[in-house]
Amino acid sequence: MYNLLVTARDGAWDKGFYEFDKSRFLEYTNEDIASALKELSSSHIENLKTYPCLFAYEGEDSDVRIGYLKSIKERGRNLLIEFEFKENINSIPFKDINPIAPLLDIRSWEMNRTHWAVKDEDLFERLRTEGILETEEPSIKTKQGRPAAEKSKNPKVTTVQGFIAKVLSSKERNGNEVFYRGHSNKKKYKLEPSLFRRDGEGNYLYKDNEHVLYRELLVSNSIDFQSDVYTLDSLVRMQHYSLPTRLLDITSNPLIALYFACKSARGDEGEVITFSLRRKDVKYFDSDVASCIANLARLPQIEKGAINFDEEGFNEQSPVKRLLHFIREEKPFFEAAILPDDLRKIICVKGKQSNDRISSQSGAFLLFGLDAVFDEEGTPEIKVSRITVSNKAAILEELDLLNINESTVFPYIENSAKYVADKFKFNKSIQPIANALAD
């Protein structure tokens, strides 16, 4: 295992410390490792400090250094690292490493993006085998195991009754708005929208083509979107049709979240996540901040990446001006005064109940700003707690008695037909019911 740290900032590795945006942490990292590190616990931090590090600059013309991390601290949306180089190892031209890049799991174009990856390769062994490095390192620094997910300390339920008792005993309300989300596999899924999901090797599946996805669906199904006033309205509708967007579904009905936690992956433990936030922090479909974030979907990735959040004349930048143009299409009197931090927020928003599915699921959304990462343990604005769910098949039967099933959660005739067909499919236990109905 080793850390690969890449930056575009000249001279950054000369200072002994550096700040990464959390959104760049674990890019180009295999999914199983990224999932294990989604909650950056103290034990994970200590483990990362034992992995050797390759400190590199963007491009393939500069030298790289080898060292170790001394500390890792979370600072808001950033990760502050302190580090030191190995004094007995000189800098290495990247052109010497490039021929064995695949052996080190350094992927195509990876050296053209600032990020922090964790690689499942033995850095020193690979470099020694190729004759790039002769120095021997103590085995304690080179043979560390893969990171493992932390053992859950969350309460566990096996019945609907037990779940309701946990929800009702929670003190999260107390003047707050509370929402829920169900995950069928608590180890696999993270609190991220479908747009930000990656493949098994850690590569983004859709993010770089967000603006294309948005336009293509509008082109092919324009009639369905004619009634939408705001870009957020369109994103909600696209989410409904399963297009990857920067929206994450949440619900005000805990039983709906429990249903989704049990609906699939019957052999894996699921979880219901609770989100608690102040009522004044909940936005609505016509929110200015929601318009700013939602319209990022229309901006090409190259322009989103060119936005400089530290520049004084923020709203004078070309990409920001184009974003303002999109916003003014739905809000003609919007002033040219976007707050930089607003574009990187994660906000809770209530969209229009524009279809039966949103209504039946008591739907709301978390809307993710540019490169936004939701801390799995919660944020200063949104408190998070979790309930582990097992015994899924029995819970689904109990939910059915409460009229929470595929037919009511997905209120379309094809889903109702499937639910009825499955419910009354021939077997010995329900044959008397069928006979009684015939009478």
Count of domain modules? 3
Dominant shape: globular
Q: Can you tell me the residue ranges where pLDDT is under 50 for at least 5 consecutive residues?
A: 139-143
**Residue-averaged pLDDT, rounded?**
87
Helix fraction?
Answer: 25-40%
Distance between the termini: 69 Å
Strand content: 15-25%
User: How many strand segments?
Assistant: 15
Structural class: alpha+beta
Query: Radius of gyration, rounded?
Result: 25 Å
Largest sheet: 7 strands, mixed
Number of helices: 17
What's this entry about, in short?
The chain is an alpha+beta fold and about 450 residues long. It has helices at about 30-35, 40-50, 95, 125-130, 140, 160-170, 210-220, 230-240, 255-260, 290-295, 300-305, 320-330, 355-360, 390-400, 405-410, 415-425, 430-439; strands at about 1-5, 15-20, 55, 65-75, 80-85, 90-95, 115-120, 155, 175-185, 245-250, 270-280, 280-285, 345-350, 365-370, 385-390. The chain is built from 17 helices and 15 strands.
